[in-house]
Write a structure and sequence with these properties.
about 30% strand, about 45% helix, five-stranded antiparallel β-sheet, alpha+beta, single chain
């Protein structure tokens, strides 16, 4: 083994050192690129969260009525409900509010849905997700 190392010339050693340096720089630049890419992704997500909060605030302003009366039942803002429309569409989410034109606003997952109360067949209160 020592004979193999003794047979290396100075040029061979410099070449090996240069290749090790280049390989290290490639790995470091690739890791910086990945880190930078994830940083931009997280700031995009922060912007989306900020936009979502602004949209929710606008919906709260557009639907200020906090108490909804539907067929003898009382529902309030923040309550989790399951709504069935006359078209048999099911909407599950949290009540944001109601406006003067009898339109109910519900946050369902990533969507905010507004629907006329007159076109709703049934509203059922769901258990809170905190339980």
């Amino acid at each position: 083994m020592m004979e193999g190392l003794k047979s290396l010339t100075t040029i061979d050693i410099l070449y090996a050192a240069l290749m090790a340096f280049v390989a290290t720089q490639l790995v470091l630049s690739f890791s910086r690129y990945l880190k930078l890419k994830t940083t931009y992704k997280s700031s995009d997500e922060q912007i989306k969260d900020t936009d979502k909060i602004m949209i929710i605030k606008k919906c709260i302003a557009m639907f200020p009525v906090e108490t909804i009366y539907f067929r003898g039942k009382v529902f309030t803002k923040g309550m989790r409900v399951r709504i069935t429309t006359f078209q048999q569409r099911v909407i599950e989410g949290e009540i944001i509010g109601k406006n003067e034109m009898d339109i109910l606003c519900v946050m369902a997952g990533q969507h905010i849905i507004a629907h006329e109360i007159a076109k709703i067949e049934d509203i059922i209160e769901m258990p809170s997700s905190f339980q």
